C-alpha cells in the first residue's frame, strides 16, 4: 500500500481504545475502507480529516465500551471475599474478636472523650465576633526586686490608648462592683433583697469590643449615664421568674446603696449570658459614671480590667512595643527611679483561659500544661489499643498461615493479601469505632459532670463528625493492621501450606516487647496518677499554720455598719460559737498589699491585713515570740505583728520593738509586738510569704470585710441558724458565708478536676493492658494444650504447670516495672517541684502500683492457665 | 403497533440493507444511501442504528472473510430478518393506507 494513503494512526488508536470490542473490528474496517475511497475521490488530506471526524462521531453511547464493568468485574468479587472471610473469622473466634474489638473500642472512646475535653478547653472566648482581634491589657511592674504582672490597670488606660493609637478600634474598661445589695420592691408587701457580687462598672464600648446579644431594652445608652443597670438573662430570671419577658421590667427600679448613699437604679436592658466557655461571666453592668474613681486622672489608680479591639491586620507586637512610652509619658518621673519599671502588655483574648495566670484573673483559668498532658495521655491510650490489636492478631497468625499459603498458590500476589488483612483490620476498627461512639454517648453525661465541662452536642456538625470518625477508623485500621498484614503474608507458599510454621523465639520477643511496652505505660500512668492524688491530698490536708476546719466566714461584714462588737457579743451567747474575729481579709482571699518602710531597711511591698484581737486565736495561729495585740494595752492601736518569714526576710534576729512605717510614712509607724508562725494564705503553689497583721482598731484601718467564727462541730446547723438570725437583726441584706476549708479547696479546683480526669483515664489504660494480657495468655495456653496434656500424662502437677505457664508473663510484668520506675520517677519529680510544698517521691506508691499490676496479671494468667490445665489430657491429645 | 414503530432513518437503513441483499456492510450501506438519497451519513450514526436494529431483532449480522483490503479487517454483513421484513411491510402498509385515505392529491 502506498504509504501516503495510509490512514492516520492517532484517531484509529483512539477508536480502538474506546470502542466496544465486539464491534471494533468491522467498524475499523469500515473506517479504513471509507478512508481509502475518500482518498481517491477527494485527496488524502481531506480523507484524513474526515476520518478523524468520523472517529469523533463514533464516540457516542452504544459504541463506547463500558469501562467500569470490564475493569471491576474481577476485583469486585475478591473484595467481597475479603469481607466475607473477615466476617467469618470474626464469628469463628468470638472471644478473641471480642477481646480485640473491646480493647480498640475502649481506646477509641477514651481518645474521643479526651479530644472533647481538649477541644472544650481550647475553645474559650471564641464566640466573640472579633475574638482574634481582642486583647486584654495587663500591667507589668518592677519595684525594687519584686516584679509582678497583673490584670489591674489604670482607669485612664482605655481612653488613652484609644486616642493615641489609631489601630485601637475600641476599648473598654471594667471594674468589679463588689458586694452590693439590690432591693426589688414589687409592691408594698413584696420587698426582696438580693446580694450580688458579680456585677461590673463598665463603658458603652463593651458592646463594641465584645459580642453581647441584647435581648431587651437598650445596652449602650444606659451605660453612658448614671443609675441605670443592664441585667444578664439569668439575673432577670432570678428576679422576675422564667416569664420575665411577659412582665414590664424595663424601667423598674432597684434600691441600693452605692458608696454610702442610698440610690435607686433603673433596669434599662437585658443581655444574654456569656457562654460557659468564657473567661469571665457577669450578672449585671452599670455605668462607670456611677463611680467617681472612673474619672480619676491618676495613673496609679489601678483597679480596671482593660480590653481593646484592634483594627483588622494590626500587629499586636508593634503596638505592645509602643506601650512603655505611654507610661513614661504619663507617670511621674520618680516612678522610674531605682530601676523601677512600668509598662503594659497585651494578652490575646483567646489565650487568657489557658495561658494566663497573673494576679487578678477574673475567674480561675485552665492550664495549657494540663491540655498537653491530656493530649499525650490520649495518644498513649490510642497507641496501647493499637498495640493490643497488633499483638492479638499476630498471636493468632499461625491459624491464618495456611489460608495465606493457599491464596498464594491460587494466584494472589502479596500486595493483594496485604490489602486483605488491611481490610480485615478496617472491619474490626469500624466495629470498634461504632462501639466507641456508643460508649461515648452513654458516658458523656458522667464525663461532663466530673470533668466540669459541657459539650453542646447540637453544635457538632453530624456530617463532619461522621467523616471524622470514618477517617479516624481508617487511620487506626491502617496503623493497627499494617504490621500483622506484613507479618502474615511474608511466608513462601510452600512453607505456609505445609504448616511447618512454629513460633520462634524471635517472634515471641517482639510480642513480649509490645506487651512490656503496654505495661510500662499503664503502670506508669497508674503510678503517676497515684502520686498526683497524694500530692493534692497532702496540699489539702497540710498544716497550713492555722486550722482550716471548723471556721465559718461571714462575708460583707461592712454591712453591719460598725456594730461589730455588739454583733460579736451576740454571737458569743450561742454555745456553738467558740470565738469570732473581724478582719479585712481571710486566708484564701486576696490580701491587700502596700509599701512598707521597715526600720533600717529598704522600702518593700508586702501582704498584710487588719484584724481584731481575736483573729489569731480564732484561726489557731501560734505566737512564737512576744504577744498578740490586745485592746487591754492602750498603745496597741499602733502595734503590729509579723510572721517568721518576714522577720527572716528582714534579717531581724530580735524583731520585737522594731518599727515599720506604713506607706513609708514616718507618722504611721507601727511597733512590732510579736512574731507569729508562718501560715499559708495563698495556694501551696506559693511559698509562705511575709505577712503582717495590724490591729483593725488602728486609725489607719481600711475597715472590716469578714467575720470569722470558730464553731463547734456539734449542731452546726443550729449554730448557723443562730448566726443567720443574729445577722438579720443587724442588717437587711442577706447573709453570705462560706466554710474556710471549702474556700481552701476551691483554690485547687483545677487540680482536683485534673486528678479526677487523670484517674479515670489511668483506669482505662489499665483495662486495655489487662485485656491485651488476657488475650495473649489465652492464646498461648491454647497453643500449648497438647504439651500440657503430655506433661500431665507424664505426671506434672497442676501447680507445676501453672508455674511453667506464668513464668514468662511474670517476667514481662517485672521488666516493665523496672523500666517504668526511673522514667516516672524523673517526670513526677519535675511535676512535684512546681509546688513550693510537696511530698517526697513515695517509694511505697511505686511498690503499690507494681504489686497491683503483678497481682492482677497473676489473677488473669492463673485463671487462664488453670482452665487449660484442668482439661482432661485425653481430650487434648485425641485430636489428629 | 407502537412496539414495532420504526424511525425514519431506521426504515431507510433497513431498506438499504434489503436492497444490497447479502452485500450490506458498513461502507456499502453508506455508499448506497449516498448515491440513492444524496444524503451523507457518518459511520457513527449508521453503526448506532445498525446495533439498535440488531438488538431489536430486525437485522442479523455475521462476519465475512478477511481480505487484504481495509487493512485486513473483516466486514460485518447485515441481513434483514423475517421479523424485520414483517416490520418493513407493516410500515409500507401504513404509509399506503394513509396515502389512499387522501381524497384528491395533486
Just name the CATH architecture of chain B.
Orthogonal Bundle
Number of helices of chain B: 4
In the residues of chain B, how many domains can be counted?
Answer: 1
Model regions low in confidence, pLDDT < 50 over at least 5 residues of chain A: none
- Overall SS class of chain A: alpha+beta
Q: Using only CA atoms, what is the Rg of chain A?
A: 39 Å
Named CATH topology of chain B: Arc Repressor Mutant, subunit A
- CATH domain class of chain B: Mainly Alpha
Give the termini separation of chain B. Answer: 30 Å
Distance between the termini of chain A: 74 Å
- Quickly count the domains of chain A: 4
Number of helices of chain A: 26
Characteristics of this structure?
heterodimer, A: 880 residues, alpha+beta, 4 domains, 14-stranded mixed sheet, 6-stranded mixed beta barrel, 51% helix, 17% strand, B: 106 residues, mainly alpha, Arc Repressor Mutant, subunit A, two-stranded antiparallel sheet, 4 helices, 2 strands
Overview of this structure, please?
In chain A, 51% of the residues lie in helices and 17% in strands. By secondary structure, chain A is of the alpha+beta class. The model of chain A has no long low-confidence stretch (mean pLDDT 83). Chain B has 106 residues and is mainly alpha-helical. The longest helix of chain B has 20 residues, at 82-101. In chain B, helix 1 crosses helix 2. Chain B has four helices and two strands; from the N terminus they run αααββα. The mean pLDDT of chain B is 86. Chain A binds chain B through residues 7, 23, 25-34, 36-37, 53-54, 57-60, 62-63, and chain B through 25-27, 30-31, 42-45, 47-48, 51-52, 63, 69-71, 73-76.
Summarize the structure.
With 880 residues, chain A is of the alpha+beta class.
Write the layout of secondary structure elements.
The complex is a heterodimer of chains A (about 900) and B (about 110).
Chain A: H1 9-18, H2 21-42, H3 44-58, H4 67-92, H5 94-122, E1 134-143, E2 146-150, E3 153-154, H6 157-164, E4 168-176, E5 180-185, E6 191-196, E7 199-202, H7 206-209, E8 214-217, E9 228-232, H8 233-240, E10 253-258, E11 261-271, E12 284-287, E13 302-310, H9 316-330, E14 341-348, H10 352-355, H11 368-395, H12 397-410, H13 414-451, H14 462-488, H15 493-498, H16 505-541, E15 551-554, H17 564-572, E16 577-583, E17 592-598, E18 604-611, H18 615-619, E19 623-626, E20 639-643, H19 644-650, E21 659-662, E22 669-676, E23 691-695, E24 706-711, H20 716-730, E25 737-739, H21 740-746, H22 749-783, H23 785-793, H24 798-832, H25 843-869, H26 873-878
Parallel strand pairs in A: 7-12, 9-11, 18-23, 20-22
Antiparallel strand pairs in A: 1-2, 1-13, 1-14, 3-13, 4-7, 4-13, 5-6, 5-10, 8-11, 9-12, 10-11, 15-24, 15-25, 16-24, 17-18, 17-21, 19-22, 20-23, 21-22
Helix pairs in contact in A: 1-3, 2-3, 4-13, 5-11, 5-13, 5-22, 11-14, 11-16, 11-22, 13-14, 16-22, 16-24, 16-25, 22-25, 24-25
Chain B: H1 8-20, H2 26-37, H3 43-56, E1 59-63, E2 76-80, H4 82-101
Antiparallel strand pairs in B: 1-2
